[in-house]
Each structure stands twice: as structure tokens, then as C-alpha cells.
Write a structure and sequence with these properties.
The protein is an alpha/beta fold and 465 residues long. 30% of the residues lie in helices and 17% in strands. It is globular, with a radius of gyration of 23 Å.
Length: 465
């Protein structure tokens, strides 16, 4: 493989290897500090990061506020405290080597407040901020206020052009790089647009070349592009190195760092990674964010699939083919459905799915009573972890609501990600992963249960294998 030349990131020479900033409590101070200590770029998550009590135990993020607004304020405080904690751990761990970034999701609740709250207390500890999940127009302005570099996460040249023209051209000197996160390969939430087919993956090379052309037009010839999603062995990406069509390039690794000694994920999660097969990670669109996301297909996703399959449209009065009366709920309210859908509904109810729940799309889903109770409890307990949530109808706007009915086909993302990060079942919680995760079982480096340290992983990646 060609020599892997160093690159300048946030004013320092580092390996072109970057840790992907995985959400709630997964990329933390220990992992990011270790990446930086290995001469690379570490990224800790600023999304509800963990903080600790005087005994070193994780402080549970329990919400006691009576209103969603009150609970949202608690969430923002937890996030700021956790971000500061993880930044300090990362700084102490890196030994003055590499660079440290904080990762923020623009669509998370209180994103700007959390980022500013962490940066206020961590001057000199954090060198850059990466941000995706939306169009983070104010990212550059915030980064400039603190004198650090910023790294927007986008999935197309068109998205970057919009960001550049609206805001980033004013702060070009602190644009440290542009992260191209491939919407068909990366783990977590993906930036598929309405014009792109989730079932038809596109080659990232021409998309990144198009991004470079947009950047060159803006005079950003020397600003690195960071390829994220689907990167396993750098030898497979050798033709991207020293390639004038791509320009300066670095590579982000989100999935491989999960299986390291420093990784805080549960041991059961690590064991599951080495058993994955091609196709076990799938794109799904149940997320309350409205984005597609890539996750391991398990009992959690199966339940959401079945929940949506037990769904029929209805009308309050007879209209067209909806001429068959159906009595629903404890009060036996009469609605109208097609004859075929009434038969389906009766079959589901006979199977124990006796509770009906309205969706925003004039349909009912049929669930078991205990599941309906859990859904309602989660919706009531909403703490505003997203700027706008389809599951609970929370919004940060003045009305505090999206104006739409809460969607029971979705789920509380804060709850499931906190659970799997700490003590939940990997079979019954959302388990994000990139689509290349099956390669753990095929890569001979991991045979016989070998789990590397982050230092060993970075050294291995640098060899190309």
C-alpha cells in the first residue's frame, strides 16, 4: 500500500485516522483520548455523555421534572456536565498527542446550548467539533467564538454548497475538514435525501469527487475530506491516496473502535459483533428523527416492523371503500374500514393485539395492552432529547409541539440508547452499527476472540489492514 502520510488537523500533524463520534455514552473520553494518544484524532460524543459521582459510578440520568420543559432543562444540564467530564478524561488520556474533537448532533435537543456549555468550561481541551444530523448553519459561528475548528458532516456536495453559501464562507479559516458520511454504509443516522433510493447504494467515489469540486470552487483545495462509512482496510482505499480528484483525505472509523479494550459497550455487544453476517445491519426508518438509520436487525427492530404491519387506514364516516364499520377501544367507538381490513383487524385482536393506537396518518396500529401502556408511558416521560420528535410530538419551538399527533410506530430513542449503553439487552434495544460490521467475523485479526487496544487498532489501520 502507498505510504500513509500525515495530515494537518486543527493545527497539528496527525495520522489521517479519525474515530467516529458514536452517540450516547459509546465514544467517550477513554476511547477518544486513546485515539489521540496514538497520534490520530479522537472524537467523544457530546450526546448525553456520562458523568460520575464521587465514587466513580455513572450518574443515572433520571428525570424528575413535572413538565416536558422541566425535563428538557434537566437533560441539557446532564449533557453539559457529561460533555465536560468526558473532555477532561480525554485530555488527560491523550498525553498531549493527537487531536480531540467533540461530536454533536444538530437535531438533538438543546444542541447549541450543550455545545456552548461544554466549550465554555473546556477551553484548550477540545480542538474541533464535528456535527451532523441536520444542516448545522450556526456550527461555524459557534466554533469561531471559541477559536476551534469545525467539521460538518454531510452526505453530498449539494448539502455542503448550501452550508457554505449561507454561513461557512464567513469562517473559512476554521473549517478543518468536511466529513462525507456515506448514507448507505455508515452506522447510526444517515443523510439520505428524498431523491435517493435506500435500496440502491451509490458508489462513494463519484459523490466525493463531486464534493471536492464544490470545495475547490470555494477555494478549499487544501481542506481535507474525511471519508466516513464502509472503511475497514485502508488498502481497499489506496486509490484515494494522493489522488488529485479527491485531494487531501482522511478516514473515519466508527464501527471498528467498538471492539477495543477501551470501548465502554457491554461485553455482550462486543460478542455479538463478531457473529454478525452480511445483511444483519439494515437501514430502517422508524427513528423519531425522521432520518433513516443503520442498526443491527434484532428483536427491537422486529417488534417495530410487526407493529407497523398491524396497521390499517380508517375514516370516521363511510367513504368510498371504507364502508365497513369496526368497533374499537373500550368504548367501542365506530370507525369505517375496508372489509378486508376489518378481517385483518379481527384476526389481530384474536391474537391478543387488542389495543388500537392512532397514527398521524389516519391509521390505527394494533398492539398488546402491555405494549400500549409502555408506549404511552414513554411518550408522557418525554424529556425533549431531539429538537423535534415524531414519537412524542415534542418540539423546541414556541408551541413546544410539532403540531402533529405523536406517532406510536416510532420509539423513545433516548431510552433505548441509554439502556443499551449501560445495562440493557442487546436483543431488545436499538443497536447501531455500520454495514461493514459483519467483517469482524471475516477479518483474521480478530480470530480466537482477540480484542485490541485502541493503540493496536490505530497501528493496524495504518498498515492498511
Amino acid at each position: 500500500m502507498k505510504a500513509l502520510n500525515s495530515i494537518i488537523m486543527a493545527g497539528q500533524e496527525v495520522l489521517p485516522i479519525i474515530e467516529g463520534g458514536k452517540g450516547v455514552a459509546v465514544s467517550n473520553g477513554m476511547t477518544s483520548g486513546a485515539f489521540a494518544a496514538a497520534g490520530a484524532v479522537g472524537t467523544f460524543s457530546g450526546v448525553n455523555a456520562d458523568s460520575f459521582d464521587s465514587s466513580g459510578l455513572v450518574i443515572p440520568q433520571v428525570y424528575r421534572g413535572r413538565t416536558r420543559h422541566d425535563r428538557h432543562e434537566e437533560l441539557v444540564k446532564y449533557a453539559i456536565d457529561g460533555g465536560i467530564t468526558q473532555a477532561r478524561i480525554a485530555h488527560e488520556t491523550r498525553g498531549n498527542r493527537g487531536r480531540l474533537h467533540i461530536n454533536i448532533l444538530w437535531e438533538m435537543g438543546g444542541a447549541e446550548r450543550v455545545l456552548e456549555g461544554v466549550l465554555d468550561k473546556c477551553r484548550g481541551l477540545i480542538h474541533g467539533v464535528t456535527c451532523g444530523a441536520g444542516m448545522p448553519y450556526r456550527l461555524a459561528e459557534i466554533a469561531a467564538h471559541y477559536g476551534i475548528h469545525y467539521y460538518p458532516i454531510i452526505s453530498s456536495g449539494r448539502a455542503f454548497r448550501a452550508l457554505w453559501k449561507r454561513a461557512y464562507h464567513k469562517f473559512s479559516d476554521l473549517l478543518g475538514g468536511v466529513v462525507y458520511e456515506d448514507p448507505w454504509l455508515a452506522g447510526g443516522h444517515n443523510g439520505l435525501s428524498n431523491s435517493e433510493d435506500p435500496r440502491k447504494p451509490e458508489d462513494p467515489y463519484p459523490r466525493v469527487v463531486a464534493l471536492r469540486q464544490v470545495m475547490n470552487e470555494a477555494g478549499l483545495h487544501n481542506t481535507p475530506i474525511i471519508m466516513a462509512g464502509g472503511v475497514w482496510w485502508l488498502s481497499e482505499w489506496e486509490y484515494w491516496l494522493d489522488n488529485p480528484e479527491i485531494g487531501p483525505v482522511a478516514f473515519q472509523f466508527g464501527t471498528r473502535p467498538l471492539l477495543t479494550q477501551e470501548s465502554p459497550i457491554l461485553s455482550e455487544w462486543k460478542k455479538r459483533l463478531v457473529t454478525l453476517k452480511p445483511g444483519d445491519v439494515r437501514l430502517q426508518r422508524f427513528s423519531p428523527t425522521g432520518f433513516y438509520s443503520s442498526a443491527v436487525h434484532n428483536g427491537f427492530l422486529e417488534n417495530l416492523e410487526h407493529r407497523s404491519e398491524r396497521q390499517i387506514p380508517f375514516t370516521p364516516e363511510p367513504v368510498g371503500a371504507h364502508e365497513t364499520a369496526l368497533n374499537i377501544g373500550a368504548r367501542k367507538k365506530e370507525v369505517y374500514v375496508t372489509a378486508a381490513d376489518k378481517f385483518r383487524a379481527q384476526t389481530w385482536m384474536e391474537q391478543g393485539f387488542t389495543e388500537t393506537m392512532k397514527t398521524p396518518d389516519a391509521t390505527f396500529i394494533f398492539v398488546a395492552p402491555e405494549e400500549a401502556e409502555d408506549i404511552r408511558a414513554d411518550q408522557i416521560a418525554c424529556m425533549g432529547c431531539l429538537s423535534a420528535c415524531a414519537f412524542s410530538n415534542w418540539s423546541q419551538n414556541e408551541e413546544g409541539s410539532t403540531g402533529r399527533k405523536a406517532d406510536p410506530r416510532s420509539f423513545c430513542i433516548q431510552k433505548t440508547l441509554q439502556n443499551i449503553a449501560h445495562d440493557g439487552s442487546i436483543h431488545n434495544e436499538l443497536m447501531f452499527a455500520g454495514h461493514n460490521a459483519y467483517r469482524f467475523s471475516q477479518d483474521p485479526w480478530y480470530k480466537n476472540g482477540f480484542v485490541p487496544s485502541v493503540k493496536q487498532l490505530v497501528e493496524r489501520i495504518a498498515t492498511g489492514w
